[in-house]
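I'd like us to work through together how a protein chain folds, taking it slowly. We need material for that, and I hope you will provide a protein of your own picking. Go ahead whenever you are ready, and we will take it from there:
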Amino acid sequence: MSSGISQKLQVSRKELLDIGLRNTMLNFRASAKTLAVVDELSESVFHLLYRQEKAMSFSPMARQKLAALAKTTQIEGEDAQDVATDELLLHELDGLGESGFVDDELDESGRARRHTDTRLQTALDEERLFLQLLRIHSEARAFIEEQGVNTLFLALGFLHWYEADSSENLRKAPLVLLPVTLERSGAKDAFKLKYSGDELMPNLSLIAKLKTDFGLDLAACEFSEDRFDATEGSLDSFYAEVTDLISKQPRWKVSTNEAALGFFSFGKFLMFKDLDPKSWPQDQQPDAHPVISRLLGPGFGDQHPAYAEDVNIDSVLQPGEVRFVKDADSSQTEAILEVREGANLVIQGPPGTGKSQTITNIIAELIAQKKTVLFVAEKMAALEVVKRRLDECHLGDAVLELHSHKSTKMSVLKELGRTLEQGRPLTKVAEDDLANLAELQGNLNRYCSAVSAPVGASGMDFVEVLGRYLKLKLKHSHGVLPTITFAPMASWTQADQLKRRELVEELTLHLKEMGRPDQNPFWGSKRTFFSPIEQNNANDALQQASAHLAALDAAAKALSIRLMLTQPATLADVAVICRAARRAAEAPRLQGVELSTGDWQLRRDAIRELLDAGQRMSICKANHGAQLIEAAWEQDLLEVRQNLLAYGDKWWKVFSGRYRAAKARLQGLAQGVLPGSNAEQLSLVDSVLTYQQSQKVYNQHEGLGSALFGAQWQRQQSDWAVLERVSAWVVQLYEDLGNGHVPQGIIAFLAGHTDASGLGETVSDIEEHLAGLDQALSAGLEVIGMHDDNAQTLRNLDLSALGTRLQLWQASLSALYQMARLNVLSGEIHQAQLDELLNIALRSDTPDQIPAILDFSWYSGLVQKAYAEKPALQQFDRIKHEHQIARFKALDAASLNHAQTYLARQVWEHMPNVNQPGEMATLRAELNKKRRHIPIRQLIDKAGRAIQQIKPVFMMSPMSIANFLPPGKLAFDVVVFDEASQVKAVDAFGAILRGKQVVVVGDTRQMPPSDLFSRDIAPDDENDATADIESILSLFKAAGSQERYLRWHYRSRHESLIAVSNVEFYDSKLVVFPSAGQHLHAKGVSFDYLPHALYDRGRTRTNKDEAKAVAHAVMKHALETPELSLGVAAFSVPQRDLINVEVELLRRKTPQAEVFFTAQGSEPFFVKNLENIQGDERDVIFISIGYGRNESGRIAREFGPLNKDGGHRRLNVLITRAKLAMRVFCNFRGDELDIDATAKHGVRALKNFLKYAETGELEVAKETGKATDSPFEDEVIRALRDLDYQVEPQVGTAGYFIDLAVKDPEFPGRYVLAVECDGAAYHSSRSARDRDRLRQGVLEGLGWNFHRIWSTDWFRNPQQEITRTVEAIEAARARIANRRNVTVTEALMESPHEILRDEAVVEVEPVACPPYEKALLSAVTNQVELHQHQPEQLLRLIRAVVDVESPVHSVEVTRRLMEAFGVSRQGSRITAAVEYAIGMGLKQRHFLRRGEFLHLAESRPIVIRSRAHWESTERKLEWVAPEELDQALIEIIISGFSMNYDDAISGALRLLGFGRATAKVTALLEERIEQLISERRLELREGRLVVCA
């Protein structure tokens, strides 16, 4: 596998090699992009530009000399076809200024002033020189912006060479390439040439060519900045060495003073060398790299995403887990999470979807994980926009830019120095905010879940259910619809409900035909058939019932009169009267008893106690009265009882004085002889005690007995049994009264002692009639089928009503047949579990409402079920909820600031100390130099790890990686590519080799790699793995890498700007937010039709009149709306150049507009062709088609790059650059472009785009005509339309639609208010951030005023919500009216987050070690010598030393013991005694011994200890444990990142507190270093020691 990958790598690598004659480094030719410098001395020019860093201008040649030199500046090759174009441009520039002049004066040294001044002589006149410089200036900027490298060089000195002796073709190769910049400050200012500050470069291609083909070692001629920094003449001496080298080649020569300004690129050659396996360490070979081996091998098919694509973000991510520094929507967050999990990932980001924002967050999260990042892009714009965002987030300090003009030695060192001088961030991170944010997010999500979750088994969410409920409620608002119990319906699905609804509709038809069933006399009958026989039986039973009813009615009324009670109205009343009569008949003798008092009820317990006490007193006297004298009942016999109990059963009781005294006292109270047994005596005493206790109760309630029982009360001689019966009967009577079983009037009857004789017989007669009535009713009801439900109802009727009912039934028995037929249908309804609805239906006057009742009950039950099961709905409060949303928004936005603060502090805390040794010493030396700094590649080589610690994020282009990062020197945890569709696969390999994880960000539907440096050489090797893969993005996709898509489109402030692209190229999958139409400048796409502007196809390949129109539009923009950024895109380079010239002319005539063109903001004005516009965005974009109708009037189907394969991708990029407005300049309409089936996709898409630009017709209407998401929204629309507001549902173009939009009546096409409900659009969001902040924020940025209506609030009080909405509409109209003529800002500009820093940078010792602490042993004061001490005592002292000083040399241990004993000399006996004690300690596992060093038995980290404070005699390196030596070496190397042997040894000694290194010390430490290398704890790389990862 490895060999196959290696072969593929090497074949792909060949794409980068070009040492053929197309390479201008080997075969320089004059062209439209070069400028010959004539009659100058290379040494002088070099001295002025490089050594003195002066700016030089260009001098045109006098017209009289031009003719003579015309041949020497003849343009060759394919560029000759541009002559016609140049002539047109020169014609436009005619009359710019004065012609050139010739300066033949001499200076003091006798040299011509033209050779010493700062004006470079050229062989061009004024106009042609300006045109050439303008073109070079544009190309130079394009190279920097497109490739991230400056390729503009002033070539000084050329080698004239021939391919062979027989060759007639002279070749020219530059010898010295001085990197320069071409600048000017304004349209009327001259171009200035300056040394760029980049490194001087030899001609690497020439070195390789001469070595390969001619065996000449040009590298032997010293080419170094040190050499050329010296005095004048060093350049000439270099030329002399080259001349000597080629002296044996016939016809070859060095043209020392030949100079030319042009573009030279050796970046590809550097990239070719960078991929050479020989350049890489053996353990970092390119073919063994895990990502490369997958890319060119089996792919990534076995790797799976960490999260599903539709994952709910909040379910897997808590606030603060990812350090977002910029807002991130759910699609962006998903990509960030995958990167966080370590995935090699492709992030597809269509135009305007926030790729740079996502990359910023990815880099921030990687910084939070303390990872290093290599951010790679070819386009400078891509690098700069991410850097700008990181600067905004206070993370710019973590970034080192090594691309374009940012990669000069001075700029790099200046940035490193600035970063090291940054003070400590002082701003605090508010961790409490994150906890509060998490709580709020949970609350908001719970509500969202509550309204979006299916309710029960219905399959419908809460908002859908609520909407249908409200619709039904409104439809039947004229009356209240009854509802049936929901419980039987709780398990229904929607299909179940529809099925039952069909049954209900059938029932409705029957009821409409039958009439109201509950008006039928036999309503409630259960009969399903009724025969004539049963009709006769029913008639007989009803007749008997009527007879019994009449008899009992008369008897009951007579009885009530006798008992002085109210006459009975119902059968229940008759029963009550009967019970009262029965009670009166059964009453005991009540003479003298007070019945009318409430004491019988209120003091029933006291009565009970009184009677019980009297009863007990009577029993006591009855049982023992004969045995005791009367006075005994008053005696206190408790002590007597105690003594009898204590001694009565003892055999020795006669000897107890207490017993004898107790018995004697009891005998004194007895009427005769005491009982013989102790138990009988105790019973006698207990009877007295019981009597006394009962007497107390009796005395307490005696008055009550007298009051209640009257004459029957005889104090203690009362007949307690009689009183008991009276009391029980009266109490029960009152209980029955309370229960309603007997009437209140019976008390009066009984209190009067009225005669109750004969009452029993009367009651019996009435009860017989009651039983007869009951029997007859039961029989009749049984026959008519109404027994179960009607028997008790009938008994509750008034007697007269009952009689009437019986007569009605008897007269209407024939109506029972109709009810029986209805019962058959009712049985079917019962089986459908709709009994309650059936009951309503059978009593309803409007059967048509019955289906609505079912629906209403179903939906209202579902609403109630949702409320019951969802606390978030129960407790919903709009004010609280919107307050929570406001707090969530504030805290979520603040969390970005907290993350910025946290990461800024982390970056600062991980900054190395400027005073650290090793690599920081190298960097420190460079920072302190004034000039003659080492090249950046050398600086990276010598101090790269230190620089990476300062700057964990490198921003580079593929070429700058090969230029500045030596292979194997620096590794990055993650490599991130941006605009990856424009990075060739082989160009990206160098970056991938330097990383562990790769993130590829781009868009396969955007621009492929540009052709700025490519070669027209077809690959001829079938093993070329990358030749057919146009970009690294395509290669990762082909290898099956995981992909994530960014969906939300942010850039366009008017949806028409993305409409065509979304439909043509992205299948309408982008989430595009509609514009409210309120932004003054957000005008979308417009079409400038220029029918008279013709395309000059045959000669200049330009459209002059269209270029002029564009230029005038540019100038108008600069004067009228300079606050808006502007870019111009042309379809071709000639059209671009012509527009540049036209703009240039207008700039010279309009100086007041110059500030617009020279402003150096983040989005400066540009004119580009469509090949290099990717990555740019501006407020306004002008597009010049250029092609089209020519002089013949025919429209040629020739549109430059659009006619190529993939031309549609170029168009996609072109038409998605604008944020506010896009103007298309063209001389034909879309309908005029005829295309056939063979037309390329790019041309077909252009036709559609032009048509849309002109007409706005595309199937992306804003008012979609889509239905609302729920009936709830229908209700809101209806309510607002009733108030004469124009409301449109589902307003939008793609991906996102506003629920409801209120139109602006004064301005058609504009909207006043966006109304969002909590329906499908609301709860479809995958995070609270999307739902409650970002989406609304984007809409507000597009000019929308925003209002929310919560379904729960509408449910409770729709009128209040209508009022709130109307207030919001009117407030929005007022705001719009106030700002109608004021420029609308994109969004409210919040003050940027500030991080306060400590101004003072504290200088601290980079690596410091604690002083060595000796064990302090107490002095031994006894007279026993050290060697005479018991070994156990010595062992205790040794353990104390080891505890403090481990690891410690045994000699040091002995020294500590000698100090404790006051011994100054160490003899053999002392040594032996100590060794013996040490041996004892080893056996007992008190400590361990490794060599001569004692270690604690339990392991602990090795601490480096400084012995600097010791006397020199005490400091011996051999007494330092190897582990401590190793730790010191590792620590010092870590602090220095990498070190040579000598620095590592001296640094380790310094940590340990030792002085200079002797030969012996050096040898010892070198031995330790070798041991560490063998253990793979250290690694030797190119003579420098590095700690292994």
